Amino acid sequence: MRYAPAILLGRVARTLARWRKPGGGSAVPGLVVNTIAPGFLPRTLNGFPGGLVIVTGSAGKSTTTKMLVAALRAHGLSVFTNQSTANISQGLTSALLERVSLTGRIEGDIAVLEMDEGHGALISASLDPRVVVLTNVMVDQIDRFHDSDMVAAMLAKIAQRATGSVVLNADDLYLARLGDGIAPGVSVARYGVADEVLAANPRGLGYTLTSPTRLDAADGMVLTGVSGLDATVLVDGRVHELRLPARGTHYAVDALTALAAARAALLDRFDADVAVAAISTIPPVFGRGEVVSVRGTTVEFVLVQNPASLQLNVDSLDPDTEQILVAVGSDVRDPSYLWPADTSGLGHVLIASGSKSYDIGLQLAYDGVLVDRIEPDLGRALDDFLALPEPARGVKTIIFSADSMRRTRAHLGLETNEADPS
């Protein structure tokens, strides 16, 4: 009961935050609890009977986590997980407050948590995860992490806390090196992408590839094919077909990651058919290929968070898309951060918006993309974009950075944080 006062205060803070900002304020109650009871978060996370699974890396965390949770639940496990956008320490604590009792316990067999690599490294010394899942290392959030070596060092710090398994992308050079240094007694489960898939993605998958890129099928799971929303994976010598929540090879890699993580968490209970079926049914994850109906029209949301995700999403965009709005906000502090991406595949953008509207508009112009209008006022841009007649081909598509995603959802009256779909 020593955490009861902190839990009660956190819940009061949550109520006040939601009253002041409906749909937002998710980090406030966690900040309150972490300040007055710093031991609450690690004690609760370490208390699940089936242990703790941490999913971390530069990109793919949210989608991988949602897929993994679906696979584990399909095997009959009761899973606690965090909101897909609440992956820093105060967000994690806020997610716990939704379900924790006054004694600091949560009903559930296992916890699966998406974790920001920076915050995860800070709290890792107090955690004892049974499984750590590493997605990739990219040039990401340069204002925080500076370079890929720094990201790799943080992931290594988290991985060293694993007590059972470390699941990693064997095609990622940084992770391949990291896997060689895992402590004795902790297994390393590797997965990778077949050469045929890599050849179909000449721009790469956003991370630095090992050379040569090879993965013996006996050592792990292999992504063998991707076509639109369909993918094939090789698991223990058997080919399985699965359906992706959104277009793009990067989503297929997320599915492969989730399968490898599910096997590491379930051990002998793992059934590839059950896991594949569960993963094939999940909807897009909060802004990542999510299709919504708003103001009588259908809109696809495409979230980009770094140069690699911008490139991968541009490359996988439906070529029939004729109405596109691109919005880049204050989270991209240095607009040159996105310059490595070749946006020429967009062809024609109706509106460039957000606080960095002129900057992204300039990049698009240099890449040969026709931009009809620059509109810094995102609300006005959204209103005008949605008021346009229905497109003759494709659906209205909004490509946005994280800041513009939150502002877009708020302006349109949509939830700005995704709850755990229990």
UniProtKB/TrEMBL annotation:
Pfam families per UniProt: Mur_ligase_M (PF08245), MurT_C (PF08353)
Keyword terms of this UniProt record: ATP-binding, Cell shape, Cell wall biogenesis/degradation, Ligase, Metal-binding, Nucleotide-binding, Peptidoglycan synthesis
EC number of the protein: 6.3.5.13
Lipid II isoglutaminyl synthase (glutamine-hydrolyzing) subunit MurT C-terminal domain segment(s): 303-383
Gene Ontology biological process terms from the UniProt entry: cell wall organization; peptidoglycan biosynthetic process; regulation of cell shape
Enzyme kind, highest EC tier: ligase
Xref: InterPro entries: Lipid_II_synth_MurT, Mur-like_cat_sf, Mur_ligase_cen, MurT_C
Statement: the UniProt record of this protein carries the keyword Iron-sulfur: no
Location of the Mur ligase central domain: 55-262
PANTHER family tied to this protein: LIPID II ISOGLUTAMINYL SYNTHASE (GLUTAMINE-HYDROLYZING) SUBUNIT MURT, MUR LIGASE FAMILY MEMBER
Role according to the record: The lipid II isoglutaminyl synthase complex catalyzes the formation of alpha-D-isoglutamine in the cell wall lipid II stem peptide. The MurT subunit catalyzes the ATP-dependent amidation of D-glutamate residue of lipid II, converting it to an isoglutamine residue.
Record family assignment: Belongs to the MurCDEF family. MurT subfamily.
Official protein name in the record: Lipid II isoglutaminyl synthase (glutamine-hydrolyzing) subunit MurT
Organism: Cryobacterium adonitolivorans
